[in-house]
């Protein structure tokens, strides 16, 4: 059985990155809750974790699951139309890379599709399920998101 | 770390404690001898690391012996830090803290409970301690009850000295033991 390091080590080493991933995946407003849920779930499961080799990967995986939960919950909730086009918030946290900053500025659906595809490596069907739309719509959001990113990062 | 992240982590520590997921909370505290490490479980103070001890090694040891759910959470140790500060300032002679004895067993546990009862300003010999813990001949074991005491200062093993009146060894260094005994004997 692997010796697990003190949980504080995981926070010191990976909290900033987990927050950046979540801001990309669910936007700044949802990221705080998702961050809490991610680390509480990790704490709950930590003592029975069998493999301490890739703690970063383990945390990021939990973060992606919490991001999906967040989108599912929102998908079920009645969302006013104006909220879909809500202004993306520019977040000047220097810990976020340039790419994450650009991703964070995408409209919500595109932002979610891009993160779920590339950070979580989800197939289109699962992105569609997470976003509560058809696979075609998910593909379209991803395509539009990538187009915008290319233009901004060019 | 950014201020936003600090707030998120503060919230996380509070929620972890409220949901029973904070098995070991730790914090550092200043002292005239250097930085102390304090660790507690929901039952009480479980470990006090002297300046001479390696912090990383102590935390890794607590993670494996108690629980890896170990977080730096200073707010959980406010009372411990306050009482230690008062002690070093000469305002307090007795600690009024819950103790978690889980790192001590058998003879060592009995001996350490005996140490905890030695009043401020007094000393006992290793032989006294062995006798009181139920085995007069276990003087060496009484020595380990002191030298490997997980909660020095609060369980005042510096008050256990040699039969010839010399201080004997101390995990934090003989000099620290002498200064503690001098500080305690000066009082009124």
Could you walk me through the main structural features you see in this protein, from its secondary elements to its overall organization?
The complex is a heterodimer of chains A (154) and B (188). With 154 residues, chain A is mainly α. Chain A has helices at residues 7-45, 55-76, 81-84, 98-104, 108-118, 124-131, 135-153. In chain A, helix 1 (7-45) packs across helix 2, helix 1 (7-45) packs across helix 5 (108-118) and helix 6 (124-131) crosses helix 7 (135-153). Chain A is globular, with a radius of gyration of 16 Å. The model of chain A is unreliable at 79-96 (pLDDT under 50). Chain B has 188 residues and is of the alpha/beta class. Chain B has helices at 3-18, 55-65, 78-88, 106-116, 126-132, 139-147, 174-185; strands at residues 24-29, 36-41, 44-49, 70-72, 124-125, 160-161. In chain B, the strands form 2 sheets. Chain B has a 4-stranded mixed beta sheet with strand order 3-2-1-4, with helices on both faces. In chain B, strand 1 and strand 2 form a beta hairpin. In chain B, helix 4 crosses helix 6 and helix 5 (126-132) crosses helix 6. Chain B is globular, with a radius of gyration of 17 Å. Chain A binds chain B through residues 3-8, 11, 15-16, 19, 32, 35-36, 39-40, 43-44, 46-47, 93-95, and chain B through 1-2, 4-5, 8-9, 11-12, 15-16, 19, 21-22, 24, 26, 59-60, 62-64, 67-72.
């Amino acid at each position: 059985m692997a010796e697990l390091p003190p949980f504080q080590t995981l926070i010191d080493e990976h909290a900033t990155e987990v927050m950046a991933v979540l801001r990309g995946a669910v936007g700044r407003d949802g990221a705080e809750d998702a961050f809490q849920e991610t680390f509480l779930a990790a704490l709950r499961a930590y003592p029975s974790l069998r493999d301490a080799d890739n703690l970063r990967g383990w945390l990021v995986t939990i973060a992606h699951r919490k991001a999906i939960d967040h989108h599912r919950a929102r998908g079920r909730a009645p969302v006013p139309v104006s909220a879909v086009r809500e202004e993306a918030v520019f977040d000047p946290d220097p810990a976020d890379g340039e790419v994450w900053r650009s991703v964070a500025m995408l409209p919500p659906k595109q932002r979610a599709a891009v993160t779920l595809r590339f950070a979580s490596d989800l197939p289109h069907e699962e992105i569609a399920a997470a976003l509560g739309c058809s696979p075609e719509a998910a593909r379209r959001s991803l395509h539009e998101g990538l187009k915008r990113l290319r233009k901004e990062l060019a | 770390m950014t201020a936003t992240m600090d707030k998120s982590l503060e919230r996380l520590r509070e929620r972890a404690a409220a949901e029973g997921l904070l098995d070991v909370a730790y914090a550092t505290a200043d002292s005239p001898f250097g930085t102390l490490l304090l660790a507690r479980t929901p039952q009480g103070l479980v470990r006090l690391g002297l300046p001479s001890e390696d912090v990383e090694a102590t935390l890794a040891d607590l993670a494996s012996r108690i629980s890896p759910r170990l977080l730096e959470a200073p707010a959980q140790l406010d009372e411990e830090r306050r009482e230690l500060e008062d002690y070093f300032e000469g305002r307090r002679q007795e600690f009024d803290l819950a103790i978690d004895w889980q790192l001590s067993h058998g003879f060592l546990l009995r001996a350490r409970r005996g140490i905890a009862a030695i009043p401020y300003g007094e000393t006992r010999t290793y032989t006294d301690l062995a006798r009181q813990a139920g085995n007069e001949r276990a003087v060496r074991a009484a020595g380990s009850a002191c030298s490997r005491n997980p909660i020095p200062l609060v369980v005042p093993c510096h008050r256990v000295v040699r039969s010839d009146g010399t201080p004997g060894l101390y995990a934090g260094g003989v000099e620290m033991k002498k200064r503690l005994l001098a500080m305690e004997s000066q009082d009124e």
